[in-house]
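re: the backbone from monday

yeah here it is again, tokenized this time
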């Protein structure tokens, strides 16, 4: 299929994020939510972000042709077990490493600058809540949903009957995980608003800018993480389950 035919404003942001190389990078730059807001069409997302749709289409096209696609696997077609291993080994590990580091950093920055920059206390509170919720969220994925999807795929490949899940259907935990992703996405937006898009004030020290850099890197990784789950893993798992019944 010609590349131009895949970039249409009527496609959803999630579809474009999966199908068009470099699209997630361009969406990050444009401030278009491609993970939790992946079910909206590009036209709707642009209207919400107040960006002309022509600009987004041009950026997607330019990103596609001007820069080499990011190296990586084609997760649309790779085994779900491999995708799950990738999510756990990269994104879950990253969340677990970064949460305590950022919390400690925030504590330090609050102790020095909290009096003159009270918004830092809000940053600390919102991030602390997000970190706590993510800890439980990752555990639910790793202990309940992901092992079931791996077992289901093994059964489908072996042409064996799919074991009935204790949660009725994968649609149920998928719905719950997506709701939790929405909550995490809202927290990221709140952090961006509180910090004025992570603008370090003139009197900010090195720790201050390190904290804001770490929060931005955390945001970018969580966007990619939620994108892989909401737009690739979950729809594929739901489709596999309905095909196996
Ligand atoms: Fe996850
Ligand atoms: Fe998740």
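seq for it, each position gets an aa:
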């Amino acid at each position: 299929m010609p590349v131009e035919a895949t970039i249409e404003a009527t496609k959803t942001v999630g579809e474009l994020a999966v199908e068009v190389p470099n699209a997630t990078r361009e969406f990050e730059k444009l401030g278009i939510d491609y993970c939790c807001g992946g079910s909206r069409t590009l036209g709707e997302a642009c209207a919400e972000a107040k960006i002309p749709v022509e600009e987004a289409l041009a950026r997607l096209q330019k990103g596609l042709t001007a820069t080499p696609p990011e190296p990586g696997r084609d997760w649309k077609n790779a085994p779900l077990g491999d995708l799950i291993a990738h999510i756990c080994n990269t994104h879950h590990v990253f969340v677990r490493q970064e949460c305590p580091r950022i919390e400690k950093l925030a504590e330090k920055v609050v102790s020095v600058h909290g009096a003159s920059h009270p918004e830092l206390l809000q940053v600390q509170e919102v991030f602390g809540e997000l970190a706590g919720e993510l800890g439980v969220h990752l555990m639910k994925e790793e202990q309940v949903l992901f092992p079931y999807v791996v077992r289901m795929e093994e059964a489908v490949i072996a042409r064996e009957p799919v074991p009935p899940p204790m949660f009725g259907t994968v649609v149920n935990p998928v719905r719950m995980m997506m709701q939790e992703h929405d909550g995490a996405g809202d927290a990221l937006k709140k952090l961006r608003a509180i910090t004025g898009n992570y603008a370090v004030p003139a009197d900010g020290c090195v720790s201050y800018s390190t904290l804001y850099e770490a929060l931005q890197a955390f945001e970018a990784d969580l966007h990619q993480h939620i994108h892989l789950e909401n737009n690739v893993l979950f729809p594929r798992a739901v489709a596999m389950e309905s095909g196996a019944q």
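The chain has nine helices and no strands. The two ends are 31 Å apart (CA to CA).
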